[in-house]
Design goal:
With about 280 residues, the protein is mainly alpha-helical. It has 12 helices and 7 strands.
Length: about 280
């Protein structure tokens, strides 16, 4: 049975790459999680189904935090769903869900972004602005092709090879044109030695820009800032969800919670009775 499961595991990882379009890093994360899980999970064949007893594995990873446990079990559930789709019926035993508290994203203030940009070089400034004004994932920025950019729109290739069109600000387009006029880039917006600039290189640029103003900022925080700014200024959640390339509006709703938290903070600062002695 182990050989059969190993065979399907290889096919599953290939499916993630070729059909779902997952990145190499994501596929490696799935592979590591499955290798660990399948080593500890007890498998029993019963008639036309295979029972996965997760208890030994859950005991093994019980010392980890809830979020990590949830991710590991999620990889195993995705694999089980794939097996079920292939006609191999998998039933989980001891699969109680792990509750994970949703953490609110921490956007960077517009003021801090503008301050950091005053010290940025042209390429650095463009990297930050494309993340902040287009709401891109770092992987999407790394893979962004010059041919996918028009005067007013950017065609983005997102997760699962899904395409979406995002409006391009005139100021960002002007900066982009100035950069490309002096750059040797041929295919991708950001290139090095005729290859697209790596995600890690782009992350380092963002880190370096904000470090000059004593801030720790990630590319994903700039994406959060983009989404939060849109929602706080009245953009419909359906539109924001589409612009971000979210598969479901439920994913976008965490930003509305953030907006509510900010409104509460502003209210507490502004209302004369808030903080008053009782």
């Amino acid at each position: 049975m182990k050989k059969l499961i190993d065979k399907y595991k290889k096919e599953f990882l290939q499916y993630l790459e070729e059909i779902r379009g997952y990145s190499d890093l994501t596929i490696k994360t799935y592979a590591d999680a499955l290798n660990e899980a399948l080593w500890h999970v007890e498998m029993v064949q019963e008639q036309d189904e295979i029972i996965f007893n997760l208890m030994p594995y859950r005991l093994k990873i019980s010392h980890l935090n809830a979020k990590t446990i949830s991710k590991k079990l999620s990889a195993l559930r995705s694999f089980a769903q794939y097996l079920n789709d292939q006609g191999v019926r998998i039933v989980f035993k001891a699969d109680e869900s792990v509750k994970v508290a949703k953490t609110l994203p921490k956007p960077v203030s517009h003021k801090n972004i503008l301050e950091a940009l005053t010290y940025a070089k042209p390429e650095e400034k463009l990297v930050v602005l494309m993340l902040y004004t287009l709401g891109l994932r770092i992987s999407e920025l790394s893979s962004l092709k010059i041919s996918d950019i028009t005067t007013q729109w950017v065609r983005v290739l997102g997760k699962g090879d899904k395409q979406r069109d995002v409006p391009l600000l005139a100021s960002t387009k002007e900066l982009l044109d100035e950069y490309l006029a002096t750059s040797s880039a041929k295919k991708f917006v950001f290139e090095q030695n005729s290859e697209k600039l790596s995600e890690n290189s782009l992350r380092y640029i963002v880190t370096k820009v904000f470090k000059r103003v004593a801030l720790k900022v990630t590319p994903h925080q700039l994406r959060h800032s983009y989404a939060t700014a849109l929602l706080n200024n009245g953009a419909p959640i359906a539109d924001v969800s589409e612009l971000l390339g979210h598969a479901s509006m439920a994913t976008t709703q965490i930003y509305t919670k953030l907006g509510s938290a900010l409104k509460q903070q502003n209210y507490n600062k502004a209302h004369p009775l808030c903080g008053a002695d009782k």
